[in-house]
Amino acid sequence: MNEITMMLNADEYILSALKEDITSEDITTNSVMRKYCLGQVELICKQDGIVAGLGIFKRVFELLDKNTEFEMFAKDGDEVQNGQLLGIVRGDIRVLLSGERTALNYLQRMSGIATYTKSVAVLLENTGTKLLDTRKTTPNMRIFEKYAVTVGSGYNHRYNLSDGILLKDNHIGAAGSVANAVKMAKEYAPFVRKIEVEVENLDMLKEALDAGADIVMLDNMSVEDMKQAVMLAKGRAETECSGNVTKENIRTLTDIGVDYISSGALTHSAPILDLSLKNLRAI
After folding, report:
1. CATH number of the domain at 3-117+271-282, please?
2. pTM of the prediction?
3. 3-state DSSP call for residue 130?
4. Which CATH superfamily is domain 121-268 in?
């Protein structure tokens, strides 16, 4: 997921989030600010980390008022520090107040994912293994969360169910066997699509390889079995390790030699990065 693709598809999600927060009016802001007044507010970092989502942060205010202006002192992917001034937002004070929470919700969440992803990705440096995300994302936040993973030096797995074939345990159960599931997928899917199969043991792995799987996902297998699986798959299929992978246990997987390690924790367990809009004043 790159920034251009994200921004092309962002508006409908941002507008939905704004409508969630403002069903008819911002009654608090309208109580204290009855008419237009030009003002500015500072975007301040309150925690060390990696910033991501500045374009979305800006777009929230732009959708409320296209005349809102920004002076940014950081860009996505930058390492930021507690107390750092990241930018200044100028515009109608009513807009600054009404858009504050939604803009920060996006920026804090995306920056938290980028920060956590980076902390995991560094553990895979010089291993030849790529760190992948999963579809375990917040509903209606996937496009933003997967972008944040890439900012944090991770890679995207398939975006959604239309994006790639991944035959998991229940698909295999529905088809009757690994071999039959792969055969049916090959018959149905366009030839340009790779077929990935989730396997839980070495017997399933051998069946998937013999059936012509392009990628095998080694799900919750022991380290020793995964090492053997990598040797069996070499030259026949790419390998992916999956199953409760976190920053705390990924070191046990770095010497296995898999092509990819996927981790749902990148999106479902990353804490936010603490950011704040402060020092609002009229200008």
Report:
1. 3.90.1170.20
2. 0.95
3. strand
4. Aldolase class I (3.20.20.70)
Task: Compute CA 276 distance to the chain's CA centroid, rounded to the nearest angstrom.
Answer: 22
Distances (CA, A) of 134 to 243, 262, 266: 11, 7, 8
Catalytic residue ranges? 101, 136, 168, 198, 219
Question: How many other CB atoms are found less than 10 A from the CB of residue 156?
Answer: 17
Domain ranges of the chain: 3-117+271-282, 121-268
- Contact by Cβ (8 Å): 115, 83: no
142-199 confidence digits (pLDDT tens): 999 999 999 999 999 999 999 999 999 999 999 999 999 999 999 999 888 999 999 9
pLDDT category at 246 given cuts 50, 70, 90 is confident
Please enumerate in sequence order all residues whose Cβ is within 8 A of that of 263, keeping only pairs 6 or more positions apart, or say none.
120, 131, 132, 133, 134, 242, 245, 246, 250
